[in-house]
Amino acid sequence: MADIKNLKNLQNYEYSLKKEFEGAEDFLPLLGTDYVELYVGNAKQSAHFYKTAFGFQSEAYCGLETGVKDRVSYVLKQDKIRLVLTTPLVEGGPINEHINKHGDGVKVIALWVENATKAWEETTKRGAKSFMEPTREEDENGHVVRSGIYTYGETVHIFVERNFYYGTFLPGYRKWESHYNPEPVGLKYIDHMVGNVGWGEMNTWTEFYAKVMGFAQIVSFDDKDISTEFTALMSKVMSNGNGRIKFPINEPAKGKKKSQIEEYIDFYNGAGCQHIAVATNDIVATVGAMRDRGVEFLYVPDSYYDDLFERVGKIDEDVEVLKKHKILIDRDDEGYLLQLFTKPVVDRPTMFFEIIQRKGAKSFGKGNFKALFESIEREQENRGTL
Ligand code: FE2
């Protein structure tokens, strides 16, 4: 506990210094991503998949055995990343409707705050629709306060205040001990989470993040940046004040064939979280381990590596090793990044993961968009949705 408190103090200190330097008061200080909750059809089996294939560790559980009658949740952890997988145990409730409409997908992007009541007040007074009024939850290990607001589609942000909680995850959960503990694959933290929204809605949601949550736009790509011969999309990246939370927002753009964002919207039945980008310090090891455990990644042609040197210059890694693992590389003014995208991890062509290793670069791999989208088009072609 002491380490966590020290870390928090350090982060708060850094944050207050930055704010002092900037001379502006952030009305919604965010300490990081607290957890990501997916509503899924079968949490027990999803948990097994994320442990086996992604190297997550068993962390916490709630369900019938802990007195919860209508749903079950498994909490998985890898370094700073917490995934919560929730399945209903009864018919006809909002979780069932969510799964029926969207398939398995992200319901909650939870944000760690010092004061969940203030976070809710500041955002709702700026126009956010409330999902959950500030609620104190407690057990013998202390208390938390949570509150929540809606964002795009039926996705929500829950603000979690946990300064006085010393138990496992949240009140009501018990520690989940398992005999099956596959090794982590080196995933460290959530780098960014991307939202797909409908035609003409990108600016609505970037304005939402600016006005309601105090975020700033850090990057913008139009359909000329992100297009191939056939398909296109537009994107803007929103970031909070300390840069720990980054939400790119995509919308489809007109092309000769169907945009991958439109395909997502069709199958998800509306706006939702498209991908979770998770950071690693050793992408070759991480991607190699994930492939060995059955994760499927997007195809990258060998020709992608032909002009790599001219495009990104000198890099630390052996190009042959990157080529073997089909890892993409891009450079910006501050350094370079390595990245790779999984195929959708659910049955509908909706949610996927990005594995990213940053070596100075703060951007999102613009130089890879063309190769990446051509690869996605191959998949769309196979699905008959191009
Ligand atoms: Fe990404």
CATH class wording of the largest domain: Alpha Beta
Q: State mean pLDDT (0 to 100 scale).
A: 91
Name the CATH architecture of the largest domain.
Roll
Total beta strands = 17
If strands are numbered along the chain, what order do they take across the biggest sheet? 6-7-8-5-1-4-3-2-9
Q: Spans of 5+ residues with little confidence (pLDDT < 50)?
A: 1-7
Short description:
The protein has 386 residues and is α+β, with helices and mostly antiparallel strands.
Search tags:
386 residues; alpha+beta; 2,3-Dihydroxybiphenyl 1,2-Dioxygenase, domain 1; 2 domains; nine-stranded mixed sheet; eight-stranded mixed sheet; 10 helices; 33% strand; globular; binds fe (ii) ion
Characterization of this structure:
The protein is α+β, with helices and mostly antiparallel strands. It folds into 2 domains: 22-175, 2,3-Dihydroxybiphenyl 1,2-Dioxygenase, domain 1, CATH 3.10.180.10; 187-383, 2,3-Dihydroxybiphenyl 1,2-Dioxygenase, domain 1, CATH 3.10.180.10. The protein has 10 helices and 17 strands. The strands form 2 sheets. The protein has a 9-stranded mixed sheet with strand order 6-7-8-5-1-4-3-2-9. It has an 8-stranded mixed sheet with strand order 11-12-13-10-14-17-16-15. Strand 12 (232-239) and strand 13 (246-253) form a beta hairpin. The termini are far apart. The structure holds fe (ii) ion (FE2). Fe (ii) ion (FE2) is lined by residues 192, 194, 275, 277, 354, 364.
